[in-house]
Amino acid sequence: MTRLSVQAVTKRFGGVTATGDVSFDVPEKGVTAVIGPNGAGKTTLFSLVSGFLTPDQGRILFDGEDIVGMRPDRLAARGLVRTFQLVQLFPDLTTLDNVKVGQHLQTRSGLLAAVLRPGSTRREEAAVSARARELLALVGLLDVADQPAKVLSYGQQRLLEVARALAAGPRLVLLDEPAAGLDAAESKRLAAVIRTIADQGVTVLLIEHDMSLVMNVADRVVVLDFGRKIAEGAPAEVRAHPAVIAAYLGGVEIADG
Ligand SMILES: Nc1ncnc2c1ncn2[C@@H]1O[C@H](COP(=O)(O)OP(=O)(O)OP(=O)(O)O)[C@@H](O)[C@H]1O
């Protein structure tokens, strides 16, 4: 089954074609990575898929439904969520509450009710807290559940963002450079988290510069260069692809760290 189908998508900014006639499918199962040199169009592609930008041409299907023109909040409610390169947490809320905010996207009572906390939603609240703690355990942040998010290290904040995105119960999660700024231990944790969520049936699409992470966790890789797709396939195929080697590293083979 195809979770996401990007079909001949083009986005121009003035004279720059940020995304030019890009097509690829993301299967329901597994981890797909989008890689490419700086300015290749990765972030633009993510913004098109997650509803922050609208393509000039092309179609984007999420579980078979054309989602072009749908706003990000509507897409999130339908099960398509993203994280950002820059951390976007609520700094004064606790780590746990940051995850709960993400989860209230999918609960019946919603965020407003969660804030007002009427008696009828208390049972739901307990379930939300339990699930949030599970997600914090998954990303290794249970110890700091009650700390304000602003006291966490940068790497911890990035892992918290991943937990918050998962809290919304997505079918497709877009992770924008999740390993950027992580130390080696956090990066290892992240790779395990990504594999676990994919095994649990959540489709993962990620942009990543950390090649060792891509080679370790991705089942498929899509390579962009100057807004165009130049290759796609299994990590081993892509790293050996002449166009990728030429575009990406000026002729040096991709190292796997
Ligand atoms: N809002 C914008 N207005 C004008 N040009 C833009 C805009 N967003 C992106 N671009 C241009 O589109 C091209 C693709 O940019 P994009 O940020 O998508 O690439 P990227 O692969 O994510 O790069 P990086 O790895 O540096 O984050 C670049 O030439 C960029 O300058």
Task: Give me some keywords for this one.
257 residues, alpha/beta, 2 domains, six-stranded mixed β-sheet, four-stranded antiparallel β-sheet, 39% helix, globular, binds adenosine-5'-triphosphate
Please outline the helices and strands.
Elements (H helix, E strand, L loop, with lengths): L1 E12 L2 E12 L3 E5 L6 H8 L7 E6 L2 E2 L5 H7 L1 E3 L12 H9 L6 H7 L5 H18 L14 H14 L4 E5 L7 H16 L3 E5 L3 H7 L2 E6 L2 E6 L1 H5 L2 H8 L8
Parallel strand pairs: 3-8, 3-9, 6-7, 7-8
Antiparallel strand pairs: 1-2, 1-4, 4-5, 9-10
The chain binds adenosine-5'-triphosphate.
Adenosine-5'-triphosphate (ATP) binds next to β2 and α1.
Structure description:
There is one protein chain. The protein is of the alpha/beta class and 257 residues long. It has two domains: 2-79 and 170-249, Rossmann fold; 89-154, no CATH class. It is built from ten helices and ten strands. The radius of gyration is 19 Å and the shape is globular. The mean pLDDT is 88. The protein binds adenosine-5'-triphosphate. Residues 13, 16, 18, 36, 38-44 line the site of adenosine-5'-triphosphate. Adenosine-5'-triphosphate is lined by residues 13, 16, 18, 36, 38-44.
- Describe the oligomeric state of these chains in a short phrase: single chain
Rounded to an integer in angstroms, the radius of gyration calculated over CA atoms is 19 Å
Largest sheet: 6 strands, mixed
What is the CATH C-level name of the largest domain?
A: Alpha Beta
In CATH, the architecture of the largest domain is 3-Layer(aba) Sandwich
**Unreliably modeled segments:** none
Q: End-to-end distance, in Å? A: 32 Å
Write down the overall geometry. Answer: globular
- Would you give the CATH topology of the largest domain? Rossmann fold
Number of DSSP strand runs: 10
N to C succession of SSEs: EEEHEEHEHHHHEHEHEEHH
CATH superfamily of the largest domain: P-loop containing nucleotide triphosphate hydrolases
Strand order of the largest sheet: 6-7-8-3-9-10
Beta percentage is 15-25%
| Distinct small molecules | adenosine-5'-triphosphate
Structural class: alpha/beta
The number of helical elements comes to: 10
Kindly state the percentage of residues in helix: 25-40%
